[in-house]
């Protein structure tokens, strides 16, 4: 029988230090990669400046009360003849049922999670109180944002969740 000489490695302070430093280098490296990926791929900021939005709260509240007092009827229909094309038709009526004219209407299909995927819809006036435009938004969940402006004053604003197929 032969006797094997076994050389046991001694655990020194230098080995512990190297292992500890290597561990933290790996942790910091993975965190740096994850932070970079998270920042570069997240486009869903709802409010660019929350402080200014908070200061404008009273103005927004007054605008909402004035919008309710107008008692307008705003009907938005989304017609989707093909999966990659949707036509938006918006009809504006005042509280007496007469078409609302002399206004600028803007619409946008906003992606709920990624603002980079938003699609503005260029609207043209088809007739008194009727506006229409085409969008090439993908299938999925979208927020339909509508704003009506006259002489720089916002008269109407709405946000509705819709689904495109």
Characterise this structure:
The chain is of the alpha+beta class and 165 residues long. 30% of the residues lie in helices and 38% in strands. The chain has helices spanning 13-41, 50-55, 57-70, and strands at 73-82, 85-93, 104-110, 119-121, 124-127, 130-135, 140-150, 153-164. The strands form two sheets. The protein has a four-stranded antiparallel sheet, with no helix packed on it. It has a four-stranded antiparallel sheet with strand order 4-3-7-8. The termini are far apart. The mean pLDDT is 89.
**Largest sheet geometry:** 4 strands, antiparallel
Number of strands: 8
- CATH uppermost class of the domain at 72-164: Mainly Beta
CATH architecture classification name of the domain at 72-164: Sandwich
What does the radius of gyration come to? Answer: 29 Å
Distance between the termini: 79 Å
Q: What is the SS-derived class?
A: alpha+beta
What percent of residues adopt helix (DSSP H or I)? 25-40%
CATH superfamily membership of the domain at 72-164: Macroglobulin (MG2) domain
Low-confidence stretches: none
Provide mean pLDDT, rounded.
Answer: 89
The fold-level CATH name of the domain at 72-164 is: Immunoglobulin-like
DSSP helix count?
3
Order of helices and strands: HHHEEEEEEEE
Sheet with most strands: strand arrangement: 1-2-6-5
Describe the global form: elongated
The share of residues in extended strands comes to: 35-45%
């Amino acid at each position: 029988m032969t006797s094997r000489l076994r050389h046991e490695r001694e655990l020194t302070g230098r080995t512990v230090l190297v292992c500890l430093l290597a561990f933290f280098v790996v942790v910091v490296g993975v965190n740096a990669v994850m932070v970079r990926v998270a920042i570069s791929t997240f486009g869903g900021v709802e409010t660019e400046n929350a402080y200014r939005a908070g200061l404008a709260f009273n103005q927004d509240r007054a605008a909402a009360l004035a919008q309710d007092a107008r008692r307008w009827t705003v009907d938005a229909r989304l017609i989707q003849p093909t999966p990659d094309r949707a036509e938006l038709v918006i009809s504006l009526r005042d509280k007496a049922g007469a078409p609302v004219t002399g206004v600028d209407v803007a619409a946008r299909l906003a992606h709920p999670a990624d603002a980079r995927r938003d699609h503005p819809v260029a609207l043209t006036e088809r007739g008194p109180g009727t506006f229409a435009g085409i969008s090439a938004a993908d299938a999925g969940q979208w927020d339909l944002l509508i704003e009506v402006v006259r002489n720089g004053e916002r008269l109407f604003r709405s946000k509705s969740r819709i689904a495109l197929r």
